[in-house]
Design a protein that fits this description.
two-stranded antiparallel sheet, alpha+beta, single chain, 15% helix, 2 strands
Length: 65
């Protein structure tokens, strides 16, 4: 189970049974989920399909894009 949480409140934004954070994020983006203030530090997102992603205020420090 992967959970993507807000960095400021710890609230779960999106979760599910995925192989990776990349897969979870792509699924959420395809469903129009807003990842406002998501904690994505150090995530491996190489090749992720994030067209139209709402990542306002997301923490991406060290993320592999």
């Amino acid at each position: 189970m992967i959970e993507i949480k807000r960095w400021d409140t710890g609230e779960v934004i999106y979760s599910g049974k995925y192989e990776s954070i990349k897969d979870c994020l792509e699924s959420g983006v395809s469903k129009g989920i807003s990842f406002f203030r998501a904690k994505l530090n150090d995530a491996k997102l190489n090749g992720a399909k994030l067209n139209g992603a709402k990542l306002n205020g997301a923490k991406l420090n060290g993320a592999k894009l």
